[in-house]
Each structure stands twice: as C-alpha cells, then as structure tokens.
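Lecture notes, unit on binding sites. The following record was shown on slide 14. It pairs a sequence with S-adenosylmethionine.
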Amino acid sequence: MGGRIAAAPERDNGGMDLEAACADMSPSPYDAIAELYDPWSRSVTEDVPFYVSEARKSGGGPVVELGVGTGRIAVPTAVAGIPVIGVDSSAGMLEVCRRRAEAAGVAGLIDLRPGTLDAPPVNERVSLVTCPFRAYLHLAGDEERLRAFRSARDLLVPDGRLIFDVFTPRRDDIEETHGRWIEREPGIFEHADWDADARTLTLSVRGPEGETTMTLAWLSEPEWRKLLDAAGFEVDACYGWFDYRPYRSSEDMVFVARRRGY
Ligand SMILES: C[S@@+](CC[C@H](N)C(=O)[O-])C[C@H]1O[C@@H](n2cnc3c(N)ncnc32)[C@H](O)[C@@H]1O
C-alpha cells in the first residue's frame, strides 16, 4: 500500500515523487493514458456541478475523493474552497492532478495520496466520501466491492455520506458499440468489448498521448443496494442523472448512501 504523500496543513505535493510513492502498488492501466485522460473525458462535465454542490452541502470538508484521477472533480471542488483528500492507485493520474491543482492555484487544498479504493490511506474522519465517474466499476467482485464500501464507511463520521456513480449498459448501447473502434474525441479512439453474461466491459483507449486496456464490471441497482446495506449504509437516494431525477432503469445510477450506526 502506498503511503500518504503530503499532509495538511503544510501540503506541498510539488516535490514528492508520486511514481516512487505508488511503486508498491500493482501497476495501473491508467498510467499509460494519464496525459490522454483529460482530452478523452473533455465532454464529461455534467457531474462536476453535482459533486461540487454536494461537497458544499457537506460543510467545510475535507472531502475524500476515491479514484481522484486527474482532479476533474477535485480541482473545481478545491476552487470552491473545499479541501480534498484524493486517493488513487495511478501515479500518472496523481501527477497530472498535482499539476492541474497547481495551475488552478489550489495545490494547498488538494492532498494527494497513492492508495486503493478498498484500503485508502486516510485516517481522518469526514462527512463526505465520493467516488465519481464510475471508478467503483474497476472492482472485480463482491468481496472487493464490500471491502471498498466498508473502508469508505470507516472514513465517515456518523451520518456521513458516500456518493458515487456507476452504470449498467443498455442492450442497444452494447449492440451499437461492441467490437468497434469509435472516435470519442478528435484523434482519441475507444474500443468496447462487452460480455453481457459476465457483465464486464473490456475497454481500450488510444490516442496520441498513449493507449491502454482496462476492465470494468457492472451490477444492477438492487445488487449495489444489497452491498451497501451489507457494508453498513442506508441508501438516501438513487438518482438516474446528476440533475437529481430519480433512477428509473436508465444507464446511470448516482447513489447517495449514509453511514448507519456508529
Ligand atoms: C474513470 S477515472 C475517474 C477519475 C476522477 N474521479 C474523475 O471523475 O474524472 C477512475 C480512476 O480510478 C482510479 N482507480 C481505478 N481502480 C482503482 C483502485 N482499485 N484503487 C484506487 N484507484 C483506482 C484510476 O486510476 C482512475 O484515476
């Protein structure tokens, strides 16, 4: 497990070697596309105001973001004045996040830590833990998912919330995209191999700045609820999109779960 990179209040990730700090973790498929990730996800913007607004509602922070990536959500959250503890297993993604935070003038509000979703290196207790943009789909089985939910619960104060989004693909989406290279952004291509029986997606991405292949695994809404319940959460809401519309069998699910008990 990676250790903590920098500690508030004297956070200064600038001199830290994120690669060395991540060296004792398994290699991440995101390392190869760390420079490609922001151009690849350029059109994904709808979730940013949602997560920033939820961070504002949670008080003064810090918010723990699991799978913080390049700071697509963490940087605007910090710009809104809310400190973020960002955990990720990819040294490359954390390095891009560090640069992005610096460029936005909020490096002092973002505390980056190499670590995994199921054992985040966080001792603080917070009122909000988030895991945006489907990062939990990288967990391979129920055991790992339960470990991840239980460790997220352990980070929360009583009544604290875990907010994350995931998806279940529609059949027509699978049929439309299966086995094809699709140009998602100019010069950036995506290839999806869906296994509807195993409920896994093998996703390849390639572009001028790198290429990679990663696996995602999806569950139904009741299955996510069951795991949350087993991990000690009440589900406050499950939305179908970031505008708070209720979930009604759409692809996207946005869960707001509250820590049960003490
Ligand atoms: C789809 S990106 C989301 C990044 C960011 N939250 C966002 O909204 O843009 C998923 C992130 O989760 C990280 N990740 C995937 N599996 C992980 C694991 N087991 N432990 C820690 N981080 C993980 C990846 O490195 C990547 O940065």
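Take-home: The first helix runs from residue 18 to 21.
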